[in-house]
Design a protein that fits this description.
Elements (H helix, E strand, L loop, with lengths): L5 E7 L23 H21 L3 E7 L14 E4 L3 E4 L13 H10 L4 E4 L12 H4 E4 L4 E5 L6 H11 L2 E5 L16 E3 L3 E4 L7 H12 L4 E4 L2 H5 L6 E5 L2 E7 H6 L2 H8 L3 E5 L2 H4 L5 H4 L1 E2 L6
Parallel strand pairs: 1-2, 4-5, 7-8, 10-11, 13-14
Antiparallel strand pairs: 1-15, 3-4, 6-7, 9-10, 12-13
């Protein structure tokens, strides 16, 4: 339930860090405009290599091309849609107008064609009221315990979160999170990853001590082992990982940069439950997201 065996990926032809999203994304890096053609080529190569590595691990990868010159962040599809057991799909309201054209009908049609889709609930109309919820970037979902964890931000409005949780049967668990410079964490999924039998979380970044303990207790309640991440590891995207179900068991997909930031003891703990699959995506990480952001998991039954 927690670890999907199929994902959607978008291979961009015109990738670049998006200036329109930089204001509240401390993980994003400014790059010279002159480097845009080289960056686009490298991002294309990184997505291609990542999709091959995941397929080699037994993951079904639905790879879509994006040749649009106006969608620099399209490589991160998990922000605009999510899928759920029982045949449910959600489409989300995006904070930046520059990201709203990433939503694609062909992706939804592929899901309907290959999987059992009962309904599609579209929240994108909330954008007109400046209400935003950027999918499984803004939320980290515990599918087994039916809890939606969300760090407060411009991209996770409590109104939209409440609507999603009511429609999809999750309990919202909201908290405040910020780095040591008091900069708010922009997306919950850079802070934490919930797998079947373990979780990665930058617990020290949850600013309220009482709420922090409540979150840790709820994550651990089903018997999960909690692996606490330091702030430097969070900055290196160690929390931006996703558990998937491959042909030989569960794997944890994360970036090579994230993998290098982990301590041997942390790696040893993860390897008790899942095989680590590091993916080399340094160019894409310039945009402020990493492997988790690149993979929209498919929690639907095949036709």
């Amino acid at each position: 339930m927690q670890a999907p065996s199929a994902v959607v990926m978008i291979r961009p032809h015109h990738f670049t860090p998006n200036p329109a999203t930089a204001a509240d994304n401390a993980f994003q890096v400014d790059v010279p405009a002159d480097d845009s053609r080289l960056l686009a080529a490298e991002a294309y190569r990184e997505v291609t290599a990542a999709s091959v590595a995941l397929a080699d691990a037994g993951i079904t990868v639905h790879l879509f091309e994006d040749e649009d010159t106006t969608t620099p962040d399209s490589v991160f599809p998990n922000n605009w849609f999510s899928t759920h057991s029982g045949g449910h799909v959600a489409i989300y309201p995006m904070h930046s107008p520059s990201r709203r054209t990433e939503r694609r009908s062909d992706v939804i049609e592929l899901l309907k064609h290959d999987y059992r889709v009962q309904d599609v609930i579209d929240y994108s109309g909330l954008e007109y009221d400046d209400v935003f919820l950027e999918g499984t970037g803004a939320m980290v979902l515990d599918h087994a315990s039916r809890i939606a964890y969300a760090a407060r931000s411009n991209r996770a409005d409590p109104i939209a979160l409440e609507r999603f949780c009511t429609n999809f049967g999750y309990e919202p668990m909201v908290f405040d999170a910020a780095d040591s410079d008091a900069v708010r964490i922009y997306h919950t999924n850079v802070l934490m990853c919930i797998a079947t039998d373990f979780a990665l979380i930058g617990a020290e970044l949850l600013t309220d001590e009482r709420r922090r303990q409540q979150v840790l207790d709820r994550i651990a309640a089903p018997g999960r082992e909690i692996i606490t991440l330091r702030e430097d590891q969070v900055r290196n995207f160690a929390g931006n990982a996703i558990e998937l179900r491959g042909s030989a068991g569960r794997v944890l997909a994360l970036s090579s940069r994230a993998y290098r930031s982990l301590d041997p003891a942390q790696i040893g703990t993860i390897e008790q439950y899942a095989r680590l699959v590091p993916l080399d995506v340094p160019t894409i990480e310039l945009a402020g997201g990493s492997v988790r952001c690149m993979l929209a998991g498919i929690h639907l039954d095949r036709r």
